[in-house]
User: What shape does this take?
Amino acid sequence: MMSERRCSEDDDRSSLISRLGSDSPRPRMNPQTQRRRAARPQPQSPHGGGRVLFPPGHTWENHGKREGDRLIIKGGKIVNDDQSFYADVYVEDGTIKQIGENLIIPSCVKTVDAYGQLVIPGGVDANTNLHAPQRGMNPTDDFYQGTRAALSGGTTTIMDHVLVEPGASLLTAFDQWREAAEEKSCCDFSLHLDITRWHEGLCEELEILIKDQGVNSFLFFMAYKDKYQSSDSQLYEAFGVLRDLGAIAQIHAENGDIIDEEQKKLLFLGITGPEGHILSHPEEVETEAVYRAVTIAKQTNCPLYVTKVMSKSAAEVIAKARKKGIVVYGEPITASLATDGSHYWSKDWPTAAAFVMSPPLNRDPSTPQYLTSLLACGDLQVTSSAHASFSTAQKAVGKDDFTLIPEGTNGIEERMSVVWDRAVSTGKMDENEFVAVTSTNAAKLFNIYPRKGRIAVGSDADIVIWNPKETRTVSAKTHNLMVEVNILEGLEFRGVASVVISGGRVVLEDGKLNVTKGSGRFISRKAFPDTVYKRIRARSKMAEARGVPRGNYDGPVHDVISVPKLVPPTPTTRGPTCPKTQASLRNLHQSGFTLAGNQVDDHIPRRSAQKIVAPPGGRSNITSLS
Amino acid sequence: MSDCRREWNREDELPVYLAGPIATGPNQRKSYGMFSSVEGAFDSKTIDFDNYAVGRKGSRTPRSGSRERVLDSGDPAGKTSSEGREGSLTDSPGEAEDVRPGVVVRYPSGMESSNGESERLLIKGGRVVNDDQSIYADVYIEDGLIKQVGENLVVPAGVKVIEANGRMVIPGGIDVNTCLMKSHLGTQPADDFLQGTKAALAGGTTMIIDHVTPEPGQSLLEAFERWQEAADKKACCDYSLHVDVPQWDETVKEELELLVQDKGINSFQVYMAYKDLYQLSDSQLYEAFSFLKQLGAVALVHAENGDVIAQEQTKILRMGITGPEGHALSRPEELEAEAVFRAITLGNRVNCPVYITKVMSKSAADTIAQARRRGCVVFGEPITASLVTDGSHYWNKNWAKAAAYVTSPPLSTDPTTPDHLNTLLASGDLQVVGSAHCAYSTSQKAIGREDFTLIPEGTNGVEERMAFVWDKAAAMGKMDENQFVAVTSTNAAKIFNLYPRKGRIAVGSDADVVIWDPDSSKIISAKLQQSASEYNIFEGVECRGGPALVLSQGRVVYEEGQLQAQQGAGRFIPRKHFPDYAYQRIKIRDQAKSKQGVTRGMYDGPVHDVFATPKYVTPSPSAKTSPTSHQPPPIRNLHQSNFSLSGAQADDFVPRRSGHRIVAPPGGRSNITNLG
Assistant: This one.
């Protein structure tokens, strides 16, 4: 394993034999196992981590095979989000078959020793970008490199974002992503779709995706003006559609309009380095957008998932909204939990540029602690990595203009360790909550629970044996990624995955990664996840607004002269001419004028005498002019 | 009013007791024939009283105790009572001050004030209440200005004396938000500048700031001039104007500059609501704020999320709800709070002072309060309606009544809202009370009888504003009299740069003075109001406190229920840009907050090749393979609402072949703009 490992004294003492003789609380074990183990010669490993003990005849060759691995994980403490208990786990055909003591299992199974360690569900990373290009450049870490790193950090399921370029077909993009991932991914994956331009025409595709393709979450951007940004109206419509289809709306929450203006201003001021990125993406811009997204979600009664919570105030908005009963979830990421934005002012351009992501890391150094606390108390629910790594050469595209720097940081590998180190080992959360925020909550929200995110009979055998005592120091030299700069360089984290089992196969042990390209399966997710939609459904029933039955108003009514505003628009005539209108500079000032056809200023540049409300030849001429 | 006054002045045989204390100097004594016997007795009393009054505060207390009697004898301060009151003044001279301790105006005998401007007045024995302190002092007014404030004033002979009898003498109210000419679908509000300002004066408001509401595409300057002309003709009190910016473009900028530099306008309203009509996008707001900040103007914001409202309205109409309750349902409180939050964020980014008009809900007010705590320069204006009543009336079975409450943002359905807003007002988290007076008759409201979105928006409140702030906040012990003055006039004057000309009783200030009677009480009714609308949304609500006497420009325009307003007397008050109250902090922040880049060596490492970034050119429509991606048709515009302004529209060239884009067509650009 490429990351540096150190064993504490504890671990040395905790080697099997010494532990058997100790009085320390130890796992319940069935006597047979003890006997068997006692009779066996104990291999001394320099690593205190779990070791795999092979029965005679079992060889490494078996690892190549996907199915058929039979494993028993012995002596570990099973930690789910609700409780912890000591039991053995028997895995066959990639699923968990038995849990308990004194399991009756066939012979010839591989034994994974988990004494003194935690057996937790494999991590679910709900936000990665391993395939989404920026400015035509593909991320340095693709599905292979990315999932390999994920596995080495204890993450066994990723959910990648499919970036659908404006105007492109959702299904095509989805197929493309799925193909790429199936070819390369080493762990199970699922996909979110990023919708960059909403229009009614997408409904059909959405329905297909949700009902047939197993996608139940869609990301919208409130940032990236003129590129991906959705207006409030679009969000409102889209949220309404998603609610009806039973999907979750994800939001990249930043006010793109303000950012755009700020970027122009900063470039004008001559600030071109990465510090311009954070200066143009101030915290309040994130907060504002979160607030707005929450408001729209509340109005539409649609569940909302805020990706990449990077600042205290944004997290607070989510926490407050939850207290008001709004169905909203927040996702801090590895970077925001582990570091802050001071690095944007680094004198070293590649370092500073490596931190560029949106929303940016916050300058307030207390942000990571605050976010960890909210995570611990349940105000934030899911941790992900938002992994999108670009090499220094790629980042250098923006060396003279920070707006061109491809955005994204690493974090897929360090995620679980960061949470353990920052939250569990500091006493903010317990091991069960750790499991909840690293896997269970994500699995529940996105409807892959209990297949993922739980150690239970019938669940997928995505299991991590977690060594809370070991530490490792992050370094770009030792990480499993291709990217040259690791934003967490030099930080030391307690808590390391010592054995990782993905799909019933051991992919990490003794620090050795043994992954198979393309072994990852696509995990389809059903609509209407219970965790989210139970409340939404109940509210939909309750929320029926009712009018007041009144007698007809029969008083005098003021005459309205020729109300030109109320003439309904004649859509048919506008279609083809519409794009042409866009061309003129005028469009600039009309951006708000839409939909109702009510444009009051339609008739302004012309003389009012010529205002023809109902021209003899029908209305088409006039509308086509507008 | 002048008629009445002159009539009185002609009465040479004015009651003796009305002779002012100044006139009682040894040289001033005159013999008053038939009243002489009475005179002596009464005169000495007057002198005694005046010595007390000018000399010491403490002596005032027994006198203030006599106020209760006013309550008993005081008729409701409506129009109907005026005759009786007047009669009592002139016809029963024997009645001494102690019996009738209301405000008493004494006219100097033989003193002729031919025109209102040169009128001289002395307000005696009042407690002058400013926003910072209250003092017992007399106020001497000449030429429409306050000339002296203090005790033992030396004033010329023959001034008219107003006995305040220990009541509060406060600066006349400033109503910062009225719409007396805002047309809706071509109909004008029932209260125009005449009716509206009359109502204002009757309520103790001596200055209004009206909103100029040009339609999109109209010239702001023209609209401004139209408003000014109408107001000059009709307004009975001083006025100033806000100009609403219905759309944002280059021409608007020029006009704004003109308005600020030459016309004396320093506040402009932008809308976040009224989609497709007045609404500005965030980018436009950002630009507008930046520009207004350069000009030194205050950005007023109508804060509601118009996009969502438009959607909600469609939804609710589709559900078959067409009555006024649909108005409240389609504009929930959250949308107001959200927009307030956004406006503040924008203002803070630009570092421009933001003034939220019409704060109607608790959450919006809280948002403002929190932002102020973070240091944002933001002001909030609750209005009469939101301080007094709530949105339950939208569900009223009587359509006309329910429709009368229609205003935007709507009254909150939470019945604790008025109380909360009053508390925030008292604590200084909200600063200014407006009225958003925009009265439409029931027949005008009935335009929307089948579709609530067509109901003209606006409620009354200009007349009741001061009294209700007193009743709901001061009389409840939430705020003191100084804070009362602050929120009804001083703060507004400061924010809009009228201070200290308006909003303060001080030497040199305009003589817009109100003698406030905290103990009077009346029941609001449409029958008694000055406003021309047939419905008063506060109908039947009892309200303590009210003006006993109102001076506008140094003339008595309202006195114990009698209004003597003079049409066209109102002057336009120009306001300079960069009001200190809003801009001092802004200026310093600009200096303090200069963004610093990092000086680095040049990056000389490898740079990834970027191809002509075809990624961001959206594939041409023909390339769309999906069956669903129909050419986003007429509705297309809908989804593009954010594409604007910078000209950088990434999708500009999408539906067209890029070769065809004509940046500067041979014949000039005029054709294209005409088409647009």
